[in-house]
Amino acid sequence: MLDDILDYVELIRERPVWQPIPDRVRARFSAPLPTASADLAAVHQEFMRDILPYSTGNSHPGFMGWVHGGGNPAGMLAEMLAAGLNANLGGRDHAPIEVERQIVRWVGELFGFPVNATGLFVTGTSMANLLGVLVARTAVLGVAVRHKGVAQSQQRLVAYVSSAAHACIAQAMDLSGLGIDALRVVPTNERHQMDLNALETAIAADRRAAFTPFLIVGTAGTVDIGAVDNLAGLADIAHREKLWFHVDGAFGALAILAPNLAPRLAGIEQADSIALDFHKWTQVPYDAGFIIVRDGGLHQDTFASPAAYLRREARGLAAGSPWPCDFGPDLSRGFRALKTWFTLKVYGTDALGAVISRTCALAKYLESRILETPELELLAPVQLNIVCFRYRGRDPNGLNAKIVIDLQESGVCAPSTTMIGPNLAIRAAIVNHRTERRDIDELISGVLACGRTAFRVTQPRRLENAFLDPRRRRPVAEGAASYTDRASDTR
């Protein structure tokens, strides 16, 4: 099993990025619950036949659709060790928790947080953002809100986020009991950053209407184009208005590791809490979300739930308080910290920062290819590692949606789509440490081949893999004005 999965990683370029699941394979997952035992080797062969060939493909250098990391061998092996150890990191006094605490200190060091800052591994930034909202809620309403609920408060809390922010912020407001309608969506400027003047106007209007502003959520790396809010400006407003300042840094916060990109995060060190994902730009295997909170005492007050069966002692296995379960909702917690610890120690932050810088350089290379190709147009400024563009033609939204699906089914590369205003964009998020210029060139070749084919045929058909290099990849198995027009004369 170990040999096979290492071969999969080593030879990933020889495989399609993604391929549809054949009906006959999908049907096998309708089999009834097994009652008898089976041979491990036989079950492994089922995995190799029915699961491995039809995965998402984010380990592949041609995967550019969503902000998914590519994983790494050291983290993969650490995951095997963690599974063998089978540690529960909810609490008690054992070394795995010390690993997580060490990473909390390392993250605090990265972002200039005080030594009493606290942190926690969670599934991902969606959960981390929820925790951030809950801590902010406790900061303004006090610990009593945990018993009485938000309905008993005389204050009508409202929070602020940009129109480019991730939808999980609205979900966090929902799950926290504050309600989606309590989230004010602030327009963005020409760089897709939260408009500071509009934010201040919204806060003033809410105060006049007897609402209680309590939270500003800045974004470091927007989901559509990778924009970074003016974090220093947001921090100043939050400080002046006495609001909690939380940063959704799902992938962008880790640009702090790249010296040429870190200045773009100026102001993040003033945040009250930061959410991020190690499984994105630092390539840790899924999942490894994280939150760090400046005020560790408030963080603990938001979640700690004493119980007789969780009695703490000064000595023995029940020592080591406070436990991780005092900083989040989970008592049963896996050893996510180990694969992150291995990744940081084996590769080091210098190499990881270099990977982050290189993905952004590849994005600029893709931008240059688009600007020099008359059939393509850029739809948004390239700020980090995400590029949004399209193929010119009649019904461009329908055309580019088809191009993306054809590319995904070809196995050559896997971009995704997003909307930039009324325009459907081909979205290339370059995150994988394995991605190289040749993969960018294949994306461009693929888009052009699909676009040109759309003008030559009238009947729908499967994309011909004419632009595949057969020496490198096996055939697929069964299965409004643009930014270019505004920013450049290159057509």
Low-confidence stretches: 458-491
> Strand order, biggest sheet?
1-7-6-5-4-2-3
Number of helices: 15
- Radius of gyration based on Cα positions: 24 Å
State which percent range the strand residues make up: 5-15%
Q: Could you name the key traits of this structure?
A:
15 helices, globular, 11 strands
Give a topology summary.
Layout: H1 2-10, H2 23-28, H3 40-51, H4 73-85, H5 95-111, E1 118-122, H6 125-141, H7 145-148, E2 157-162, H8 168-175, E3 183-186, H9 196-208, E4 212-219, H10 231-241, E5 244-248, E6 273-277, E7 289-293, H11 296-303, H12 336-371, E8 376-378, E9 386-391, H13 396-410, E10 416-420, E11 423-429, H14 437-456, H15 483-487
Parallel strand pairs: 2-3, 2-4, 4-5, 5-6
Antiparallel strand pairs: 1-7, 6-7, 8-9, 9-11, 10-11
Helix pairs in contact: 4-12, 5-12, 6-8, 6-11, 12-14, 13-14
